[in-house]
């Protein structure tokens, strides 16, 4: 999954960059970062998909269908 990274300590992190046209809705932040902790690769993938879906839904609700 393109938004997941694993550190050398085996912790998983989810990172999602906001499109420029919607950054104002997120207080100027350019990315959302969330630590998933030490979970299995399957759990990380599952949680990553859930987070991605939530963020895409929010972005679409603020009026940006082009993701």
Report on this structure:
- This protein is an alpha+beta fold and 67 residues long.
- Helices cover 31% and strands 24% of the residues.
- The protein contains one helix and three strands; from the N terminus they run βββα.
- It has a three-stranded antiparallel beta sheet with strand order 1-2-3, with helices on one face.
- A hairpin with a 5-residue loop joins β1 and β2 (12-17).
- The model has no long low-confidence stretch (mean pLDDT 88).
List keywords for this structure.
single chain, 67 residues, alpha+beta, three-stranded antiparallel sheet, 1 helix, 3 strands
Largest sheet, strands/sense/barrel:
3 strands, antiparallel
- Enumerate how many helices there are, as a single number: 1
Give the amount of beta strand, in percent: 15-25%
Main-sheet strand order equals 1-2-3
SSE order, as H and E?
EEEH
Q: How many angstroms does the end-to-end distance come to?
A: 16 Å
**CA-atom Rg in angstroms:** 13 Å
| Oligomeric state of this protein | single chain
Mean pLDDT: 88
Strand tally is: 3
The gross shape turns out to be elongated
Helix/strand-derived category reads alpha+beta
Parts with pLDDT < 50 across at least 5 consecutive residues: none
């Amino acid at each position: 999954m393109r938004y997941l990274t694993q550190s050398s300590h085996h912790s998983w992190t989810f990172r999602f960059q906001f499109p420029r046209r919607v950054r104002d809705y997120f207080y100027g932040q350019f990315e959302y970062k969330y630590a998933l902790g030490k979970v299995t690769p399957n759990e990380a993938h599952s949680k990553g998909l859930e987070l991605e879906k939530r963020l895409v839904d929010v972005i679409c609700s603020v009026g940006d269908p082009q993701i």
